[in-house]
Amino acid sequence: METYRKELWFDVLIDKIGGIGVERSYAKDGCIFNEGESPRLMGLIIEGRIKVVKHSPEGKDVIVRIIEKGQIFGEVAVFDNRPYPASAVAMVDTKAFVLERHKLTELLNHEPQIALDIINDLGRKLRDLIDTVKNIATEHVDRRIVFTFLKMYEASASPVLKLKRQDVAEMCGTTVETAIRVTRELEKSGYIATDRGEITLSNIPALRAYVEK
Question: Which of 18, 33, 57, 182 has the fewest CB atoms within 10 Å around its CB?
Fold first, then answer.
């Protein structure tokens, strides 16, 4: 049911945004907007993947969220008309429909169901963020990493995660060296398999049991 709802949400937004938005392409590692900039646009990913990155005063980046195909980005700042709270960077070559703020406002005035869908999506993101903060604050690093893998699997519905060790470290609040060590241990135990920037979840039930033990 959740997969059906996600597909329906994507189709409706493509239909509505496609007529008044603009399709844009972003090269891998290209910046879509920077933390602190004035809100200009909301986007819907057609192909590719975006990471939402928070910069610390010490220069350390933390990946707050990864946005997949069929998901929206930039909506928080567009709604409250305040600077973007984090930066958005393409993890791979990415295509998206983008909608300027004033056009989004006009759309929502005429399409209240779209507004409700976006609010529901924001609610899901908030719940995920609360879970993530709790996980980082209270769990050991190995459970944090497994938790992150499972969250990405639930978001993409694919057991193949296109992640570098650097991405894992930035998402879990740890070092690259620790991310490498933990992923190697998980691979040796048969939980995952790794290959050139990809992590395949080999045994999802076992991974779920791992974070619950």
Answer: 57
Beta-carbon contacts of residue 167 (< 8 Å; ≥ 6 apart):
51, 63, 66, 91
- Answer yes or no: is pLDDT of 6 > 60: no
The pLDDT of 11-27, averaged and rounded, is 80
Residue 101 contacts residue 43 (beta carbons within 8 Å): no
Stronger pLDDT, 133 or 79, i.e. the higher one: 79
pTM: 0.70
Q: First-to-last CA distance in the chain?
A: 28
Closest CA to 55 of 88, 26, 77, 32: 88
Among candidates 3, 81, 99, 90, which has minimal Cα distance to 50?
A: 90
